[in-house]
Design brief:
The chain is α+β, with helices and mostly antiparallel strands and 250 residues long. 49% of the residues lie in helices and 12% in strands.
Length: 250
């Protein structure tokens, strides 16, 4: 795989890794890293996505918010309509089909011809409405019920992503997975479980118990139980003190 990459591509890939490794914010991949990524794979819009796909109270961290280099290309679409829900079944890059995919994929890898594209329900219902002509995605390994990855889109009138973009992203995949794992370790205050750490981060963001419950798709009673455990582990008696103690120690 690496033999197919040019020196320029390898240098750009290293720049992405350096920028990703320097992340120390609220998201695993921040804008400086995404900017470097679009130097490697030029795109009109690109970003990182991470979300939960099942409504269960697992011990894995809940979704981080989507982080976009620019505006979400799907913001103009009403994803709740029957037309869109039906069209998702024809989307060749549907996340539910690719959570275990280890290589970057383009929309055109599955639907190469213009005529086939025009006949594709997802292209007609979503991509054309957003002005998107070409799409490519790279998925990162994730725990059950969670999807993580990167998207790249180009607007109408632009050329498709080059064949070389797939191998360079695929080479980056394991490095980006390692960066994501390091970020999660840094984000978890010592002594707390992943779920408890997630709740402490939501406390720091100012969310109420009900808002935390809604975000994590759990009951407010479960939130209160987690808070009691957090207070006990940190030796505090208030939400403010829990946040202060957790992040003083992390």
């Amino acid at each position: 795989m690496t033999a197919r990459l040019s020196t320029k591509d390898l240098d750009a890939a290293l720049a992405v890794i350096r920028a990703a490794s320097a992340t120390d914010g609220n998201h695993p991949f921040e804008h400086p890293m995404l900017e470097q990524l679009t130097q490697l794979v030029p795109a009109d819009q690109a970003g990182y996505f991470e979300y939960r796909v099942c409504e269960v109270d697992t011990q894995e961290p809940a979704t981080t918010r989507n982080v976009y280099l620019v505006e979400d290309p799907g913001a103009a679409v009403d994803w709740e309509t029957e037309e869109i829900e039906s069209a998702l079944a024809s989307w060749p890059l549907n996340d539910s089909d690719h959570v275990l995919t280890t290589t970057a994929l383009r929309f055109s890898d599955a639907i190469p011809s213009r005529l086939q594209r025009l006949r594709n329900a997802y292209y007609a219902a979503v991509m054309r409405k957003c002005g998107v002509e070409h799409e490519m995605k790279l998925w990162l390994p994730s725990p059950p019920g969670v999807v993580r990855g990167f998207f790249f889109v180009r607007h109408a009138g632009r050329r498709d992503f080059d064949e070389r973009h797939r191998p360079v992203l695929t080479v980056l995949r394991s490095h980006l997975e390692a960066v994501r794992a390091r970020w999660e370790r840094r984000q978890r205050p010592p002594g707390l479980s992943q779920r408890e750490a997630e709740i402490v981060h939501l406390l720091r963001a100012g969310l109420t118990n009900q808002e935390i419950a809604d975000r994590l798709v759990i009951s407010t009673g479960t939130v209160r139980t987690h808070l009691e455990n957090i207070f006990g582990k940190l030796g505090v008696h208030s939400r403010t003190a829990a946040v202060t103690r957790a992040f003083e120690r992390s």
